[in-house]
Design a protein that fits this description.
Helix 1 crosses helix 5, helix 3 runs antiparallel to helix 4 and helix 4 packs across helix 5. The chain is elongated and about 55 Å long. The termini are close together. It has 11 helices and 6 strands. The protein folds into 2 domains: 138 residues, Rossmann fold (3-Layer(aba) Sandwich), CATH 3.40.50.1000; 86 residues, Putative phosphatase, domain 2 (DNA polymerase, domain 1, Orthogonal Bundle). It has 232 residues and is an alpha/beta fold. The protein binds magnesium ion. Magnesium ion (MG) binds next to loops.
């Protein structure tokens, strides 16, 4: 991969690129499934609940990224939409679970494998930044709790700028905030639409972090974060 070592600014996605969203989230969902006795109410095992919840959450986030729904819509409906898949409808309990989930999940500290070792390797050589589609107060808890904040110059959180990846304006804003030229920037992230297509559309290099076989994308890919040490 020629040219990557000449880049100066590496922009990382946060969720499921550095911070292990799936693992931290699943841990709390399992607690809540038990505490709210969802086995009896939904008549499904935890894996059944989890896969319905994840599918619905992903759909809602796609709608959010397309500006079709706002943050409160996601928060206030995702659990009840999952409940309804199992013939259970309880809006107020859904709100209680949402509240508990938002309180606990961001405090998770599991990072993707070798995350800190890779950041330690990159930090003396490049300027590191984050661009994340997420909510300001939630992302701040994750960054501080997991000891990530000090690695990064600019931490750009979509909610603070009323823009989301893959919108080009957010990448242009990131350049301005970092003092970077377009040809100095690389985006590293797990989401093909928002991270990779967004960055390429803005004229950046992009590295898709895919742990399992995913879309037929022939551009730059890594399966493990530690592969970045050979590229940079
Ligand atoms: Mg992500």
């Amino acid at each position: 991969m020629p040219g990557l070592k000449q880049k100066r600014h590496l922009f990382f996605d946060l969720d499921d690129t550095l911070w292990d969203f799936q693992r931290n989230s699943n841990y709390v969902l399992r607690q809540l499934y038990s505490e709210f006795d969802l086995q009896a109410k939904l008549k499904t095992d935890f894996d059944g609940f989890l896969s319905a919840y994840k599918r619905i959450n992903q759909q809602l986030w796609q709608q959010y990224n397309q500006r079709l729904v706002d943050k409160n819509h996601i928060r206030n409906h995702r659990f009840n939409l999952a409940f309804k898949e199992f013939g259970y409808d309880n809006y107020s309990e859904n709100l209680s679970i949402t509240e508990q989930y938002l309180e606990r999940a961001p405090k998770g500290t599991h990072l993707k494998e070798d995350c800190l070792a890779v950041l330690d390797y990159l930090k003396p050589k490049y300027e590191l930044h984050i661009i994340t589609n997420g909510f300001k107060e939630i992302q701040a808890i994750k960054l501080d709790g997991a000891g990530l904040r000090n690695y990064f110059g600019q931490i750009i959180i979509s909610e603070e700028h009323q823009m989301v990846k893959p919108e080009e304006q957010l990448f242009r804003l990131a350049e301005r905030l970092a003092g970077a030229h377009t040809n100095e920037c690389v985006m590293i992230g797990d989401n093909f639409e928002s991270d990779i297509k967004g960055a390429l559309n803005a004229g950046w290099e992009a590295i898709h972090f895919v742990e399992d076989n995913e879309p037929a994308y022939t551009g730059r890919q890594i399966k493990k974060l530690k592969e970045l040490k050979a590229l940079f």
